[in-house]
Amino acid sequence: MLTFSNSPAPISKKQGEDQFTPVMPIGSVCLFATYAPSGNLPDYTRFYIKNLQSCGFILHVILSGCSVITEDTLNFCARYGIHVSCRKNGGLDFGAWHSLAAQGVTKGAPYILLANDSVFGPFTPLQPLLQRLQANSRPAWGLVGSRAVTPHIQSWFIGFSQEVWESAAVQRVMALPFADMSRDEIIWHGELGLSVALTANAIPLHTLWSDIASPLARLFPANPTHAYWRSGLRSGNVPFLKQELLRDNPYHIPKLAGWRTLIPQGSDFNPAWIEEYLAQTPPRQKTLPSNRKGRMVYYALSQLDRYLPFSWGIKK
């Protein structure tokens, strides 16, 4: 694995951003996993990690699937004081996070955030969301809670205090041989396993948006970032769209073309980045295609999602 470490540097801010100040304690770390076989970070990923940095995180970005990082990406990371490394692909995001943690970059960090490039956004600043989440004082937290399979925090954005991160329960999960696992095994043992470990140790699953307590989700558990993608955006608590939803639409959810109308006016995120990605990236072949029953459930939930109140899914 190749590693390029850069000293911290100030981040430039667009007009209107300077009203926000870092919300995370000094020394908090974000481990950011991205699949980048070209060795280059696209504009939408750069936008995301700059937003994370503005919250006070020290960024450690790892590019999977490449052996050489482009000069343009190295210059970008040097400019903003972002630590960047690359690795062969294996173990998906958990394999990448495992590789970063093995470098010792989380040692002494008051909070550790795991994040990845599986989403587009944020469409609104992250600082107010982390303040609302009380991310600087809670033991574990994330943006989206889901009932699918078992109650859990979706791992594309999940954070831990140093004490929880170093706990035996969490470290047992993070030490698993993810590079030897299939995608389904990684979901079961990684994403679901983390929340099971937290719950087993009486650590609450704090999120800003969740269907965990919903009677509807008890009857029809589904991935909320697919079935309730509108609700998440309209709530203001999940200013992201999943790439998989727009690129693959595995459950054939209708009327996805309306995504652009839900991006807030005045957002610094450029919708053209999504359109360019979709134009250049073909749908990924699914090893386990959705069945007819699953598509019917997701269709019904997505239709209901169009009429749910703005308060649906917001944690009180």
Can you characterise this structure?
This is Glycosyl transferase. Keywords: Transferase. One of its GO terms (molecular function) is transferase activity. It comes from Acetobacter cibinongensis. With about 325 residues, the chain is an alpha/beta fold. About 35% of the residues lie in helices and about 15% in strands. The strands form two sheets. Strands 1, 2, 3, 4, 5, 7, 8, 9 and 10 form a nine-stranded mixed beta sheet that branches. Strands 6-11 form a two-stranded antiparallel ribbon. Helix 1 links the parallel strand 2 (about 30-35) and strand 3 (about 60-65). Helix 6 (about 170-175) runs antiparallel to helix 7 (about 185-200). It is globular, with a radius of gyration of 19 Å. The protein starts with a strand and ends in an 11-residue tail after the last helix.
- Under the CATH scheme, the architecture of the largest domain is Alpha-Beta Complex
Which structural class do you get from the secondary structure elements?
alpha/beta
CATH topology of the largest domain: Spore Coat Polysaccharide Biosynthesis Protein SpsA, Chain A
**What are the secondary-structure elements, in order, as H or E?**
EEHEHEHEEHEEEHHHEHHHEHHH
Q: Can you count the beta strands?
A: 11
Assign an overall shape.
globular
What is the subunit organization of this protein? Answer: single chain
Report the portion of residues in β strands.
15-25%
Distance between the first and last residues' Cα = 43 Å
Q: Structurally, how many domains make up the residues? A: 2
Q: Identify the CATH class of the largest domain.
A: Alpha Beta
Main sheet: strands, sense, barrel: 9 strands, mixed
Helix content: 25-40%
Number of helices: 13
Structural Rg: 19 Å
Pfam families: RgpF (PF05045)
GO molecular function, one term: transferase activity
Organism: Acetobacter cibinongensis
Keywords: Transferase
